[in-house]
UniProtKB/TrEMBL annotation:
Keyword set includes Transport: no
Keywords: Fatty acid biosynthesis, Fatty acid metabolism, Lipid biosynthesis, Lipid metabolism, Membrane, Transferase, Transmembrane, Transmembrane helix
Listed name of the protein: Elongation of very long chain fatty acids protein
Source species: Petrolisthes cinctipes
Family, similarity comment: Belongs to the ELO family.
Subcellular location: Membrane
Primary localisation category: membrane
Membrane topology: Multi-pass membrane protein
Length: 120
């Protein structure tokens, strides 16, 4: 095991917790999420990030060069939909984070909200 797996210890979905804290999961998919498996996969394949960044940059700069002498697309409707989706996702993420923060604060105090890392 690597340093990162020992640091995060993400097996809360399987019932194993770092701080022995149990609470209800908000969404059904949270109980099925195998976080520890993903941590192991990312720990083994961390080098793929450099290839992904390289591919992303090639696509962005390639499309920028390709569109340089072309007429701009009219994307107002698509960008509006994209921004609405991002806003809904951000709202859900914020609400989920506040729910977790409230639970930890009300059961374990202020210290636990900022000093205890990893899943509980």
């Amino acid at each position: 095991m690597s340093y990162f797996i020992n640091l995060t210890n993400v097996e809360a979905a399987a019932g194993r917790t770092l701080y022995n804290i149990s609470y209800n999961l908000v969404m059904p998919f949270e109980g099925n999420f195998q976080g520890f498996n993903w941590v192991q996969w990312f720990d083994k394949n961390w080098g793929l990030v450099f290839y992904m960044v390289g591919a992303y940059m090639a696509v962005i700069f390639g499309l920028q060069a390709w569109m340089e002498n072309r007429r701009a697309f009219e994307l107002r409707k698509q960008l509006f939909v994209w921004n609405v989706i991002l806003a809904v996702f951000s709202l859900y993420g914020g609400l989920r984070s506040v729910h977790e923060l409230h639970y930890v604060y009300s059961n374990f105090g202020l210290y636990s909200t900022y000093c205890l890392n990893g899943l509980r």
